[in-house]
Structures are given as C-alpha cells and as structure tokens.
Amino acid sequence: MLSTSSAIILGLSYILFTTKSPQSDTYCQLSRTPCINDQINIRLSHDIVKPMIATEVDVVWPSLPVSVENLEFILEGHEMMMGQYKLKLSRTDQDNRYNGQIILPFCTSDAMTWKGTITPSNHEHEFEPVFISLRMEK
Question: 23-137: which CATH architecture?
C-alpha cells in the first residue's frame, strides 16, 4: 500500500515527465520581421527589446472568433528567473488584429532571452498557445 507522500511523489513525477514543453525550434522568435506560425502573424516594433523602453506588439490571428476581445501575452526569463511578465493585447477594429506595449524590467546581465506564450483570453482551452521568444539587451 502506498503512503500519501509516495502517491504525491508518483503523481508529480508523472506530471513532470508527461508534460510536453516546446522544442526550441517551435518558438516564434519575435522581431520587426513578422513571425508567422500557423497563419498567426506576430511582429515587434524593434528587433531587440530594451529594458524599460516601450516596444509595440502586433498580432494578427485570423482564425479567432469575433468574441475574443483580448490575447494574453506571458513571458518568463530564460537564463534568469525574473518572474512572469503578463500583458493583455487588445483587439483593434481591423482584421483580427491585437496590439499592446511591452515594457520589460531591468536585468543585471547585459542581455537575456524571454520565452512565453500568447493565448486568447478566456478561450485558453479552445486554442493552442503560440510559443514566443524575444531578445532583450541593455
């Protein structure tokens, strides 16, 4: 018979080893050049993000229903734990376009990579997330 702690450890081990994390080649590298992932077009106003300086994010997601008003943009530091950065991208009036501004915090290193996802707000289970990556330099 399993003890409670053994059952918890087995359960956590199952989750850790069965949860797929994206491969590095599945990340959409964000820059001024649009990244197109399954007809989803994502673009930044700058190739490299600077800390504490606003950078525009523009997403065109043609397959989303009109009822999706916002996208959830979530980033986490890759080389350094900086917590989660969350941003709501708002729908504009045209062509399933969403935009917003990211302002990332200062970091002690000169450069770092941020990785994360973009998902439709309140529709997370209906659509696959888009895995994103961007470069920040001082």
Answer: Sandwich (2.60)
Instruction: Provide mean pLDDT across the span 71-75.
Output: 96
Domain map (residue ranges) of the chain: 23-137
Average per-residue pLDDT for the chain: 82
* pLDDT reported for residue 69: 93
Q: Which 3-state string (H, E, C) describes the chain?
A: CCCHHHHHHHHHHHHHHHCCCCCHHHCEECCCCCEEECCEEEEECCCCECCCCCEEEEEECCCCCCCCCEEEEEEEECCCCCCEEEEEEEECCCCCEEEEEECCCCCCCCEEEEEEEEEECCCCCCCCCEEEEEEEEC
Q: Is 4 left (phi over 0), alpha (psi -120 to 50) or beta?
A: alpha
Q: What pLDDT score does 114 carry? A: 92
Instruction: Report yes or no: 116 and 75 within 8 Å, Cβ to Cβ.
Output: yes
Q: Taking 60 as the threshold, does the pLDDT of residue 134 lie above it?
A: yes
